[in-house]
Amino acid sequence: NFNQYRKREKRKKMVRYLILCLLLVGTLADPYIPGIEYKSHKAGTSLSIWATGLTSEITHIPYDYSTARTCLDVKTKDTDPSLGEILSGISHQTSGYSLKVNESTNCNHLCSERFDRIKRDFYAWLIEKEYRYMFVVDDLPVTFSYFLDRSRIYRRGVPVGYKKDGKFYIYNHFSFHITFHSEIDVQNNLEAEPKLTIISVEAFPRSIQYGEGNNTTEVAAKCQTWQNNSLPAQEVSRGYIPFTYDISFEESSQKSETRWDRYIESMNTSQESIHWMSIINSFMLIIFLTGTIANISRRAISADITSHPQESSPLTTPNPTDDEDPDEFDHLMTSSGWKQLRGDTFRKPRNHMLLAVLAGSGIQLFLMIALLIAFSLIGFSAREQRSNLINSGLVLFIFTSQLAGYIASRLYKMFGGKHWKKAILLSALGFPGVAFVVFFSVNLMLWMEESSAAVPFLNILVLLFMWLGCSLPLTCLGFYLGHKRDVVRNPCKPTNIPRPIPPQSFYVRSKFALLVGGLLPFGVTFIELNFIMASVWGSHIYYLFGFLIAVFLIMVIISAEVSIVLCYFMINAENHHWWWRSFLTSGFSGVYFFLYAVVYFIRDMPKTTRFTAGALYFGYMALSASAFFLLNGAIGFLSTFFFMRKIYSYIRSD
What is the largest CA-CA distance in the chain? Predict the structure, then answer.
């Protein structure tokens, strides 16, 4: 009784500790609450134009705004950034640009930057690598636009400058054009001031040669002269270069609730018809595979079960009776080879601990991604900001750690595993450990580059605590709960002697199965994957989460069906090594994922030649491909496992 009391007290302490961890993770997540995504202001309210850094689609290595604007006393925002913002390399700093709501200003002198040889070469490099200032006003990104094939294209950020005839010119004058929506609360107060909501902020950069003047009055006067008569462009050279800006306001009829629509629609030039065609093609593939499985169930399996001699032993072969045709009997035995394996189908596979752990990690990733897409679709995660998605992903990954341990524990116990401590450590430290090694290696390179994306050491300790202090105990709890459950009993017991495997046809061999099985799940996600990568490695905003969740469900169904079909062909050829085949068949789509990442890098990122940028890209894409491999592999494995249990339950043998 005393031992039972101690066990109950230990469980209570563990539950309290896990609740504390989850509360701590929730505070780090900076959750997004629907309905509070915009603010209203009164006319004349001062707003800051925050700078979140310098970014480039060529190097993908961000830098702080203060590295380029040394003529100002740049300060960091007082509020602590969320963990997602830190991991994204976002730090809100004062840009020096200021405005008052609905008050236009003209030719404001920001400061005059002194350019020496080092600063000149640095700005020339920023322009060469197409860096952009990233500004935020009222939580909205500042954009600039240009025309391409008679279409107006919007991009986040403002270019540092441009290159023409081998010379570098700097944009030192920004005209900020702000649109707002005005609303008056007539029900509560007829004489109330209108509430103004910022709808969009667009910057028009200009290059103006002001000369060596550093006086505010002289610079403002020359700025007025430029507006009346064009001045030559300012080349990046040694000396003082003044920076100026304008602020203009315009009322808009667009509602405040839809202020993100302009950004989303203008930055994504793709047509929705492409996504619809992709979904229709994938749906046709599902119909084909479902029909194939239905045909197997109706013709092959039903006929085999009906004609199966129940009285025979797994190690004996029935003989034809006098009333039976020997040719028909031989055809029956050769066309129903999967029945012959009832004593070998559920034999413990090699490396069963690793298979159980990989399946648990794959189901964890499946649930995490499904919840992340669902929350983004219904609005519980600010999908417009990448940092919020990172926050939500980290929290969901920790919450689902218990499921990874539970699934791995149930499978490992079914396989008759004995080394439980090793299995727990492999599950808790396996994929998260690989992810942390990749992250730390890339972060070390970013430290050496002095990039703003380099995560500080204190935040790395926070990540370690979230992993080892929260995710690890939850995984152990999942293993404990799975171990307490009864062992999974399969329909057929394995025999003592494994059945020899006859020669296999080409479509049953592993190479063919992996190539075909991995291609189909990847094929249905190819279109959406292209847009997601354009969002991650470009300036687009991905917003089609309705299409994404449809494609995700189609991918899951196809991964399950293709694994079932190919493994059925395998056992019908009397090959009972289906455990790993079912995982690798659909999991091989991760290899196609990484190969496409290589093609994308060569095709869409030809200017990315810096080693750190390449390591950043391939490190994270290899990690994403590994997650894709685990997710699809686990879906294919568990689907095939349930399929095998179902068909063999009809021919249970003693």
Answer: 115
Q: Dig out the tokens for 364 from the structure.
A: 């964890």
The 10s digit of each residue's pLDDT in 32-66 is 433 335 678 888 888 888 888 899 888 888 898 88
User: Which tokens sit at 636?
Assistant: 């294919």
Going by their DSSP bridges, the two strands 239-251 and 173-183 should be labelled as parallel
**In this predicted structure, which of 404-413, 503-512, 632-641 has the lowest mean pLDDT?**
503-512
Query: CA of 449: how far to CAs of 62, 452, 611, in Å?
Result: 10, 9, 11
* Six token digits for residue 235: 């080349």
pTM for the structure as a whole: 0.80
In 3D, which of 414, 411, 315 has the Cα closest to residue 360? Answer: 411
Mean residue pLDDT across the chain: 79
Helix (H, G, I), strand (E, B) or coil at 550: helix
CA atoms of 162 and 176, how far apart (whole Å): 19
Which of 473, 357, 476 has its CA nearest to residue 407?
A: 357
> Confidence band (pLDDT; 50, 70, 90) for 427?
very high
User: Residue 176: which of 112, 100, 269 has the closest Cα?
Assistant: 100
Q: 77 with 53: CB under 8 angstroms? A: no
CB atoms within 10 A of CB 245: 25
Give the pairing type, strands 167-170 and 195-206. Answer: unpaired
SS3 114: strand
Name the token pair of 288. 């084909």
Q: Which two structure tokens, joined as six digits, stand for 234? A: 């300012």
Write the DSSP symbol of residue 468.
I
Q: Is 332 a residue whose pLDDT tops 60?
A: no
Q: What's residue 4's pLDDT? A: 64
Q: What is the distance between the alpha carbons of residues 161 and 236, in angstroms, rounded to a whole number?
A: 9
Task: Tell me the mean pLDDT in the region 130-152.
Answer: 83
Buried (b) or exposed (e) across 477-489, using 16+ Cβ within 10 A?
Answer: bbbbebbeeeeee
Give the span between the Cα atoms of 550 and 548, in whole angstroms: 5
Two tokens at 162?
Answer: 């441009």
Residue 25 is predicted with a pLDDT of 47
